[in-house]
Design a protein that fits this description.
The chain is an alpha/beta fold. The protein is built from 11 helices and 10 strands. 37% of the residues lie in helices and 21% in strands.
Length: 267
């Protein structure tokens, strides 16, 4: 059974992450696990009353079980509610390994950390599953979305594409921006045979283009997503050196910081 993990930081009905996760679960007849992490900060554990606060927070979070099950019932899906106390990044990374996809907030819109050093981006650096990141102002994804795929023939972009198959099948429009190229023909591996794979998956490309000349690939991607009125951007994370993108910026960092549409990321 397809498994969706919904990383629920705010237990409220109009939380876009909750609504996007459960709508996806309904569409795929998937099992939806709502997860709330009661974050432990090791540097504060010696402070008075911290354990009392954590216990109270955890107890209140567990009381949201009925709320989550009611949300699942409204969307016609099976599911459960989980509360885990611990350090945020390893908890989410480990728990998400049991899911096919994790739905969470887009880190560029709040959270108190610079993009690239925030908790959700750090989860992407682990062996976690692909993540569907939802902006705070998002309302709903249509049944037949318009999708922009950023492709550069890396393992990361292929992992993202495989995770996006449920969205790509039956999409109103799938547009591909291709940045793959033969760096060292006969020495480096050639580009992956993407078009044949898409055909076998029953996915039709409606438009295809090369990356336009630009000083910022991330900026070009978001401009194209806006131009085609895309409902989803699919891309692999950390296409260059992970440390380099983390510290110096790059395509992934730009997209996370400036996207106003859902982004499906994998590494």
């Amino acid at each position: 059974m397809y498994e969706i993990l919904v990383n629920t930081e705010e237990m409220r009905d109009d939380n876009p992450v909750v609504q996007a996760g459960l709508a996806l679960a309904s569409r795929l007849t998937a099992y939806a696990t709502g997860l709330n992490i009661v974050e432990v900060l090791p540097s504060t554990m010696a402070m008075p009353d911290v354990l009392t606060v954590l216990e109270t927070t955890e107890r209140e979070a567990r009381q949201c079980d009925a709320w989550w099950m009611n949300q699942c019932q409204r969307h016609g899906v099976q599911g459960r509610w989980e509360v885990i106390r611990g350090i945020y990044v390893p908890v989410l990374a480990r728990r998400s390994c049991m899911a096919d996809i994790t739905v969470s907030r887009l880190p560029g819109h709040g959270g108190g950390y610079p993009v690239g050093m925030d908790q959700l981006t750090r989860v992407l650096l682990t062996a976690a599953c692909p993540m569907l990141l939802i902006p705070a102002t998002w309302e709903t994804m249509p049944a037949r979305p318009r999708i922009l795929v950023a492709w550069n023939s890396t393992q990361e972009s292929m992992h993202a594409l495989r995770a996006a198959v449920p969205f790509l099948r039956g999409a109103e429009r799938v547009q591909l921006i291709d940045g793959a190229h033969d760096e060292l023909p006969g020495v480096a591996p050639p580009p992956l045979p993407l078009r044949d794979w898409l055909t076998r998956q029953g996915i039709a490309l409606h438009a295809e283009q090369r990356f336009p000349p630009s000083t910022s690939v991330g900026e070009a991607l978001l401009e194209q997503a806006h131009a085609m009125r895309a409902d989803l951007l699919v891309m692999g994370a950390w296409g260059h050196s992970r440390v380099g993108e983390w510290i110096l910026g790059g395509t992934t960092r730009h997209v996370l910081q400036h996207a106003r549409l859902p982004v499906l990321l994998a590494h």
